[in-house]
Every structure is written in structure tokens, then in C-alpha cells.
Amino acid sequence: MQRITSLTAGARKRSLWLIAVLLIAALYVSKATAQEAQVGQPDGRCAGQRYSDVCPGDWSYQYVTDLSNLGVVSGYDDGTFRPNNSVTRGQIMKMVILGIGLTGTPPATPTFSDVLTTYTLFPWIEIGVTQGVANGYPCGGPGEPCDGQRRPYFRPNSIVTRGQLAKMIVNARGWSPATPAVPTFNDVPVDNPFYGYIESVAAHNVISGYPCGGPGEPCPGSYFRPQNSSTRAQACKIIDNSRGSGPVPTYTPGPPTFTPIATPTHQPEVTATPTRSCAIFPADNIWNRDIAALPTATLSDSYIESIGLSATLHPDFGSGLWNNEPIGIPFINVTGQPPVPIYFTDYGSQSDPGPYPVPTNAPIEGGPASTGDRHAIVVDQSSCTLYEMYRAFPNADGSWNAGSGALWQLGSNALRPDGWTSADAAGLPIFPALVRYDEVASGVIRHALRFTADTTQQAHIWPARHDAGSSNNSALPPMGLRVRLKASVDITGYPTQLRVILQALKDYGMILADNGSSWSISGATDERWDNDILREINRLRGSDFEAVDESGLMIDPNSAQSR
């Protein structure tokens, strides 16, 4: 999102055994990607099944079952499969080798500097490379020094994208890349490096794309989303479908079954949600007030129309990568973290002075190379203080540069001085308004959410403290505007996770906090999100919302306490 204000604005020894795998003959094949958005029971509630989070009603059930029966994949010690976790390069090599039935003998000397003989996935990576499934990367890049043999790197913990997985499957099956004159997918033109591989897996009915009509995906046609990360469930589907496209090898008992390793996070030491030792603002704080019964704002129709009646709701958070960047706004919990200097580069006069307890590995919105807002959020559990920075850049000495910064005592209702920005354009906190996975998993969200609009008024209303627009048009929404999902909107047909979010939008609504894509809802980065489920929120449009008048809840214009 662009910020526009009035100030503008990441063990096993070598074996000599051979790997061979059972592959059965007829397989369940499905091209209907739309089914991937249909989820059965919520995670952890599928009693009596092999995995508590993969149920008979889930689109991935048959694929996961097929590969589990063959010993290609298995679950975790807690009885879950975690189908929505992203897959790494090392993990997918083992799945492909076992699933396709490739064999070989690992070499005595490791091919890659970062995959030694003691590494758990060493045999499968080496066999896969020998069979031409994937290659490595030349040494000499950042953090990848060359040794005496100038061995390459495999990057086994890097996340696999849909485009990369398509290439691996084509290579493993020995198929030729397909090059039709007219591309099948709108987002995979002929000059895309994965074009031939994606076309090949599509031609073999291994996988299909997504229907048009989503944000940034105009109709007609379909989309493949080659840069999206591949989840464990999606990988099972692709591998299982590819097994049905050709001869089926016979089974020979081989190495132990697949034991998943934890999916690495893109940023180290990120906690998905804070512990409950620190409440997020008092119960009477306006962020925590149920507004379902409040009156509709007088200018509601004008505000909603200006934001976009037909524009769809969009989750600006998820798992994996989008355009090579983590999806959402990350944060980190700290306890006893030493404070470091903060040097403000843009709005120092409206920023709370440092030092802030920000570790050098604090996650940054969009990742370390991001050119966007680069929000960095720290929740200090030892003092129950929230620290937020906009355009945050770490320095070698441990200090940080930031465009602006703000802190909040989480036990207080205090607002910033009127006219001050924060790490957000509206002068409001970001963290309390994020959709966080653990809240959704608990079954209820009890606070307002955060959203953005493309064009806003040069005005703000309580509890916002700062403007973000340049127009005096009263039909445009002001910063701080609160909207809610209309009570008449039927949410019963949505997946469980989404129903939790949509109910919160009815009960607590969402507050306009920045300029950006209209109807984009902010949430925390988390590898447990199922992006296919989240996309179903696109079924909602601006016309499903109404603006509310919460002025009657205000006690003091300089406090977030409400009646």
C-alpha cells in the first residue's frame, strides 16, 4: 500500500540404499481449482481421521490420503497434516522423488555447500538433482561464499513457488515443455521463464488455474499465479495428479516415510500473536467496542459509493509470498529487549522519540528489500508497550532509521496529539487492528479491523488524529471512518475461518486508516493462513457495507475511551 498523507507520503549419514516407490494405477484427477477454496471442518476438528485437519469434505482430502497411503507424506506428532504450510525446496524434492518413483544413489561427496551428508533431506536432493528435477545456484551470492571446489548452493529452506513446482514435475516426468501459440493463463506470457512447464502440466491435466475476476485479475481468461508459494496440500494434488499421467512404477520398500520439517518463516523470531499477558487496550477503548447497533452515518451512501460500490473486499494478508514478498504486516514480541536509537528521516517532529526495543531481526512489512511502507511493529510484553515504525531500515550498529514512529501504552486510552501522524497515515495504531490467525482460530475477533481506500478527504474524525487526503469533497471518506458489514449479508455459506472475520466486520467493523487499494483489509503475516480460503472474501463488495456514526460513544476527543 502506498502511504499518502497531507505531509505526503527466510541427519542422516550417507546411505547407499536405492529408493523406489509404490505408485498405483488409476488416480483421482481434478482440474477444478475452485474446489480448493472449499474447506470442510475447521482445523483440529476432524475426529476419527488420519489427520485432524484434513477431513473428507476438504478439497485436498483425496490427494493427501493417496500420498499418505504410499508413504510419500506423513503428518506431525500432534496428529495434524498442516495442509496450508508452504513447502520448501528440500521438502518438495523428497515428495517428488518418492511420488514419481525416481531412484538413485547419493554421492559420497555433497554436491551443494548447504546440503551436507548429515542433512535429513540430503539423499532426495542429490537423487533429484541427478535425475534433472532441479538445479542449484552458483556460489558467490549474499551469504553464500564459495569454497575451494566452488560448490553451488541448493537453498533447501527456500519456499517453492507454483511456477517452480510446475518445472520440477515436468522434469521429473520427462515431459517436454509445451509452447502453444496462445498462452493458457493471462499471467503466464510466452516470455515467462516457467511458461513451457506451466503449459505442460496444464496440458497433462495436472493442475488448472484460477478464474478471472479477482483483484488485479480482469476477465476474460484464467490465472495461474506462478509466483505464489505452493502449500503442502497443493503439492499433494499436483504430485498425485501427475502420477496418473503415464506408467506406474512398482513398490519396493525403501527409506523411512516422510517426516515433515517445520516450514521456515520468512523473517526470524516472528510470533504469530502476542501472549495474553498484555491486553490490547482497555475494554472500553473504541477499538474494542461493538458497534453493531450504532446508527448509520448521514453520509454513508456517499462514502461507500466513493470508496467503490462494486469494488470487492480484499485480504491484504496471507501465507507465502506475493511478488516475492511476504503477505501482510508482520510483528514481533519481545521481553527484556535492549532499546536502540531510532533516527527519524521524515516526520520526526510528530514521532515519539527513541530508543525503542527493536531487535535487528525485527520483521519488516514486504521483507528486507521492500520499497513499500516497510512497517516494523514490536510488542514489548515486559512493559505492555506497542512500538510501530513506518519506512523502517535497520543499521549495522543495531540502530534503526524510520520515516516516523509511535508508541502506545496498551493499558491506556490515550490518543496522539491531534494533527500528528503515526506509523499509519491516520495517526492510529496498526497492530490492534490486524486480523491475526490465532484470533480467527479461537473462533472470535473482538476488535475493529483496519482498511484502506484509494481516495480520501482532507479531514479526519475521532478517533483518527491525522488527514491523508488532499480534497475538500465531503463525499469522500475521512480518516477514522468506521464501516460495518450490513446485518442483512448472509455469511453462512463461507468457510469457517472467513465467518469469524465477517462476523467481526458486522459486530466491530473496520476503521479507515490509510490510503491504498480500496477495501483492502490488513492482517498479520502468518504461514498458517490458507490463501484460497481468504480469497473467498472477494465475494463481498462495497455495497455490502455501511458507514456508522460512532460520535455518540466519544467521551473526550483526546481519548479513545468510549461510553
Percent of residues in β-strands = 5-15%
Unreliable sequence segments: 1-43, 245-276
Tell me how many strands there are.
17
- Major beta sheet summary: 6 strands, mixed
Q: SSE order, as H and E? A: HHHHHEEHHEEEEEEEEEEHEEHEEHE
Percent in helix:
10-25%
Biggest β-sheet: strands ordered side by side in the sheet: 3-16-13-15-14-17
| Straight-line N-to-C gap | 33 Å
* Contiguous helical run count: 10
Helical/strand content category: alpha/beta
The overall average pLDDT, rounded, is: 85
Write down the Rg: 25 Å
Tell me the overall shape: globular
Description:
- There is one protein chain.
- The chain has helices at residues 61-69, 89-100, 122-130, 162-173, 195-203, 232-243, 300-308, 437-442, 496-507, 531-534, and strands spanning 210-211, 222-223, 314-316, 321-322, 325-326, 332-334, 342-344, 376-380, 385-390, 393-394, 400-402, 404-409, 449-453, 482-485, 510-515, 520-522, 545-547.
- The protein is built from ten helices and 17 strands.
- It is α/β, with parallel strands linked by helices.
- Residues 1-43 and 245-276 have low confidence and may be disordered.
Q: Which keywords apply here?
A:
563 residues; alpha/beta; 17% helix; 4-stranded mixed beta sheet; single chain
Quickly describe the structure.
With 563 residues, the chain is of the alpha/beta class. 17% of the residues lie in helices and 11% in strands.
Question: Which helices and strands occur, and which strands form pairs?
Answer:
Blueprint: H1 61-69, H2 89-100, H3 122-130, H4 162-173, H5 195-203, E1 210-211, E2 222-223, H6 232-243, H7 300-308, E3 314-316, E4 321-322, E5 325-326, E6 332-334, E7 342-344, E8 376-380, E9 385-390, E10 393-394, E11 400-402, E12 404-409, H8 437-442, E13 449-453, E14 482-485, H9 496-507, E15 510-515, E16 520-522, H10 531-534, E17 545-547
